[in-house]
Amino acid sequence: MPATGDGRAPGAADPAGALDGALPRHALGRPATAVPLTDAPPIPHPRSQAGNVPAPGEASTGAAPLKLLVIEDDASDAQLIKAAVADSGASIEVHWVRGLDQATGLLAPAPNGNRRGRSRTNEFSCVLLDLAAPADLPHPEWGHRPAAKAGGPSDGLEGLHELLRRAPHTAVVVLTDAAGAELGAAAVAAGAQDFLIKHETDGPLLARALRYAVERKRADESQRRLVEAELRGQENARLQRHLLPTPLLDGAGLSFTRRYRPGRRRALLGGDFYDAVRTDDGTVHVVIGDVCGHGPDEAALGVALRIAWRTLVFAGLTGEALLTTLQHVLEHERRSDEIFATLCMLVIEPGGDCGELDALGACERARLYLAGHPAPLLLGRDHQPMSLPSDLAGPALGLLPCDDGQAAWPAHHLELRPGWRLLLYTDGLIEGRVGAGSRRLGQDGLADLVGDHQSAGLTRGRLVDSAIAEVEELNGGALTDDVAVLLLERNPVQLILG
């Protein structure tokens, strides 16, 4: 509800000029001398922004005034408040309403039509509430507490409680009579930033109280957001422990290096996921995937897919049967039909004529499954890294229905020579820009980059870290998308995790 030009709400039935005529200098009490005040930073909340109060020695002109909403049912008292503000010399814009219903119309968020669809308030810095008229009830004369509501006693704070419920992010100062100091203290304990006693408050004191109330509310809001951030961090850390699992590769004779970096600033997790397990028959199963997007919802879905994948592997599923079941999990867990996930799965078979680790020249057989995911890089010791074939790749999980055969993920059979190394990654690593133009790094660019670092003698964690660092340098800064990288190496000794 917009205020009128003189600060009155529409419909306020006061005599014309009630607040605009000559104003007494005594304001709310003793005579006052104008005292300029310091700038008050805005209350840091996305839905409200405080105004500014001039600093000592500075002119108030040119600075946004502190917007004050006065809730007062008595027109003469409202006139005294406006006179006190005028005597203070501070840049304060006064808006007056008679009760909470009118105040709610001014404090309620209003659409501003921005591109994010957010709303904004009328940006009041502070509310000055007369506790003698706390709510839209019959209001007693100044100096008397409101009558108790029917059916129970009243603590005199009903109006404050309602105001805090309706405008939880706005600073509040309450007014009490001389006998209501205890009530004022109770109001501060209930959530108000300060209280003032009528007829003992002059203009400068009122202006200082309003400014300090805004500052205290700002500090309270900052502390609240800090606590919320800490709680979110703890929740994210717990979720991250599931998103970034400990591989179960005991007895596999593999070196397993992994790196994970979420794309969002200050985020702990994203939509990428990975896992690696060795089943009782000696088969090693590795998966890396990417849920489209990189927010908490995508991270939660990535956790669900990873846990489902590990469960299905230990239940004996593999290949297309596993991917089909995993797509059903995705379809039931996603929040929108547009959500999909890319995935790369590698199954390394044990033993056999091609799997003897102690015979020179022996190789291992593996099956590669791609669901809309970039193919791994094979890092040979004697040649340039090369991408594994992707001609049999199927669609990303969730894009096409698999019950009618539209989605299929055939296996590509591989032979891994002794000393093989495979680099699995999500597309965040290859979608970074190269220089200031629009060219992306791509799979070929990543292969060249990794080959350079490999020829420099870097291995395992140092190789992965240096490659990621150069990709970010080429991009001109941190990558915007989530990045997960796995380096899996045949190492016929005890498992090494990096």
Helix-strand layout with pairing:
Layout: E1 66-71, H1 75-88, E2 92-97, H2 100-107, E3 110-111, E4 119-120, E5 126-130, H3 158-166, E6 171-176, H4 181-190, E7 194-197, H5 203-243, E8 254-261, E9 272-278, E10 284-291, H6 296-314, H7 319-333, E11 341-348, E12 364-371, E13 377-378, E14 386-387, E15 412-416, E16 421-425, H8 442-455, H9 460-475, E17 483-490, E18 496-497
Parallel strand pairs: 1-2, 1-5, 5-6, 6-7, 8-18
Antiparallel strand pairs: 3-4, 8-17, 9-10, 10-11, 11-12, 12-15, 13-14, 13-16, 16-17
Helix pairs in contact: 1-5, 5-6, 6-7, 8-9
Which descriptors apply to this entry?
18 strands; single chain; six-stranded mixed β-sheet; alpha/beta; 498 residues; elongated; 9 helices; disordered N terminus
If you had to describe this structure to a student in words, what would you say it looks like?
- Residues 1-61, 112-121, 137-153 and 355-360 have low confidence and may be disordered.
- With 498 residues, this protein is an alpha/beta fold.
- It is 29% helix and 19% strand.
- It contains nine helices and 18 strands.
- Helix 6 runs antiparallel to helix 7 (319-333).
- The two termini are 61 Å apart.
- The strands form four sheets. It has a six-stranded mixed beta sheet, with helices on one face. Strands 2-1-5-6-7 form a five-stranded parallel beta sheet, sandwiched between helices. Strands 9-10-11-12-15 form a five-stranded antiparallel beta sheet, with helices on one face.
